[in-house]
């Protein structure tokens, strides 16, 4: 049941943001006996979605805020070969200009939006799971990785939807065939409607957990 999962989550928590360790944890004989604040288990340590983010250059559009800095910090917890892979994908995507190339043609721009919509769908599903199985039962506003539960996933989800809408606004609809127009309309409708809902949810949760 969800309450049982909520209890299990306590074993996934790290040191950072954990009220049980306000002063960190000292590993005797290690780190010069300085308190450490390691983060706990988080889905952000996965390398699949960040690979897509970097390939599609979504990472370059994340807002400059503490949440994005936390995302970058999570990447340092991966094995070194995973870190190298993600950096290399981003470097090559930036070098060839994946997004600019996609936007150079109206059809390819819509196809790029469709790929971005897959990210939106995944992130929305993840967000819905968090609301249903964690937020509903958690009095704490801190995720297992030490990130703020009310705004952490929305930071990436909102960026995804915003990029879809931004690209969509630049598409010349007169250059699309009927099938492409139908796809475009569906993608824009998904992004616009869910973006409005997400903002309302974040505002409500920020009131619950505190700004």
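^ Assign residues to that structure.
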């Amino acid at each position: 049941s969800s309450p049982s999962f909520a209890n299990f989550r306590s074993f996934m928590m790290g040191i950072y943001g954990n009220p049980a360790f306000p002063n960190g944890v000292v590993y005797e004989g290690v780190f010069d006996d300085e308190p450490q604040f390691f983060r706990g288990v988080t889905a952000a340590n996965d390398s699949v979605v960040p690979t897509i983010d970097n390939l599609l250059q979504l990472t370059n559009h994340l807002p400059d805020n503490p949440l994005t800095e936390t995302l970058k910090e999570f990447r340092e917890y991966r094995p070194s070969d995973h870190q190298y892979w993600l950096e290399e994908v981003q470097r090559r995507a930036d070098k060839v200009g994946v997004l600019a190339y996609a936007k150079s043609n109206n059809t390819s721009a819509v196809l790029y939006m469709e790929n971005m919509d897959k990210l939106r769908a995944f992130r929305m599903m993840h967000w819905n799971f968090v609301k249903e199985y964690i937020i509903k039962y958690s009095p704490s506003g801190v995720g297992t990785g030490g990130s703020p539960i009310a705004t952490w996933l929305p930071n990436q989800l909102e960026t995804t939807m915003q990029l879809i809408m931004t690209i969509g606004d630049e598409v010349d609809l007169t250059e699309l065939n009927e099938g492409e127009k139908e796809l475009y309309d569906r993608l824009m409708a998904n992004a616009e409607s869910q973006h409005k809902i997400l903002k309302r949810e974040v505002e409500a949760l920020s009131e619950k957990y505190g700004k």
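The first helix runs from residue 2 to 9.
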